[in-house]
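Q: Could you predict the 3D structure of G-protein coupled receptors family 1 profile domain-containing protein?
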Amino acid sequence: MFNEGLSSTGAVPTSANANSTGCPEPIANKYTKGVKGVAYMLVILLSLFGNIMVVRVVHKNRRMRTITNYLIINMALADLLTTVFNMLPTLYWIFSGFDVWAIGGWIGDVLCKLLSFAQSLSITVSVFTLCAIAFDRFFAIFRPLKRVITFRVAKFIIGASWVSAIIVSGPPLYTLKTTGERGFAQCNEKWEPPFNEATASRDYTIALFVLLYALPLSVIASLYTVIMLKLWRRKAPGQELTSNQENKEKTNRKVLKMLVTVVIVFALSWLPLYVRMFVMFAESDRYACGLPYDMDFLTLFLGHANSAVNPYIYVIFNENYRRGFRTVLSRRGRGSQSSSSSTRRTRSSRLQEKEAILVRADSRENRMDERCSDKKNLEKLLPATTTTENL
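A: Sure. Here are the predicted structure tokens for G-protein coupled receptors family 1 profile domain-containing protein:
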């Protein structure tokens, strides 16, 4: 089922857990664990750095505070949600061999529900945001003189994407429950009551596949196809564009290439997981314990890696993001250099102040000595003068 593949760590499919009595435990040597652990650590670091930088760059640069970039920030936040609530637990599983909910009790039950919910929530928000970006580009090209998606509308779309995602991703909060002994608890689905245990999981998966993959990607592909035909069509004979119009056309084409790449990468990243789930439904008897472990791991890893890839697609295709990344990084470099240089200046200034104080003290002592010597000379001369006057 859909949320089995997306549940929390996803390292071991929930369907396998449900039938774990007769299923062999997956065996992984230290080398395999090391490779998988390094791969996930790399993806986690790239995702955290890239998505945080996207948010920071748009926030710091006023010229980049556009509707499209605000929607991109919404996707970046969804990717960060996946990184924290799903990639980190997966990394924990790789090295420990236990899911985070294995502790059992109410904490295990909460983690079982929450981590699966977070994964589904992130994907749903990303898909709805990709649709919103496609419609924004469509209206920007075909109705350039009238802004259909304004900033107010964009804020509403962002809020609606999260609310809708919560509704769509809500069933796992009810169906997922931990079973088994404390320390070895497993996260399984229980659809009864009120749904049919035999068909509910399959129906839910098909509904989510249509709603979150097939339908939105079809709509996005149709919109971008129409836009490309509009932008790349030949000019009419005798029609000439001004330099401003040509620059605008080039910018629109570059943005479109970037967004199309994001959509294609998203579709290819999550497609293997959908294929895996449908294979398990179609061959449930053959794969009662799930597909081969490495195949299960690879399908989820590709989906998670999508969260790390998106920021660098923006950097590759968009000069503003490249410049923004360089600016933020150079400021940090200058900040560290300035702090070290200021520390050096502070130390040197302190030494100079000490030297100046010593010099002033020496000059004061010299002046005091001169005054004392003058006073003694006057005392010596003063009696003799008095005696002569008296005479």
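Q: Anything worth pointing out?
A: The chain has eleven helices and two strands.
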